[in-house]
Task: inverse folding
């Protein structure tokens, strides 16, 4: 069964040491998929932050032009009124959510870097015949045979 990228990240980063060739082939596609998601998330976050700046500026200009009745507009008062504005608060929440997605994808990129390092290490072990006496295939029987081989080797 072919691996479907992007449906379940925990499955995407798993490595099957019995299928190193396939795992090494899928690694670039995994990295490309999540790098694209990360770039898109950063662009979205930047656009939402720009929109927040525009909303803050617009609110500030509106308050300066039309101060609330009986209120003297100082910089401190203006800052407080802008901060309390419903539109500003709503956009700040949008920016927070966009940041959360960026941070999650940053973590995913780090995990994929770790996956690549693990694949590199497993490939080196394989090429040095570390798995020479082990049964491959990823089956339970193969794992039992591998553990038996480890036990024999350790004695």
Result:
């Amino acid at each position: 069964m072919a691996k479907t990228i992007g449906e379940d990240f925990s499955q995407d980063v798993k490595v099957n040491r019995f299928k190193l060739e396939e795992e090494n082939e899928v690694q670039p596609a995994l990295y490309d998929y999540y790098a694209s998601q990360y770039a898109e998330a950063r662009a979205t976050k930047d656009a939402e932050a720009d929109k927040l700046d525009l909303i803050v500026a617009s609110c500030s200009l509106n308050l300066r032009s039309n101060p609330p009745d009986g209120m003297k507009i100082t910089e401190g008062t203006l800052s407080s009124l802008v901060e309390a504005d419903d539109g500003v608060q709503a956009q700040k929440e949008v920016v927070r959510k966009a940041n959360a997605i960026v941070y999650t994808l940053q973590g995913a990129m780090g995990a994929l870097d770790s996956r690549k390092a693990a694949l590199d290490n497993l490939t080196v072990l394989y090429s040095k015949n570390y798995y020479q006496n082990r049964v491959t295939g990823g089956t339970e029987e193969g794992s039992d045979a591998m553990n038996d081989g480890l036990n024999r080797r350790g004695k």
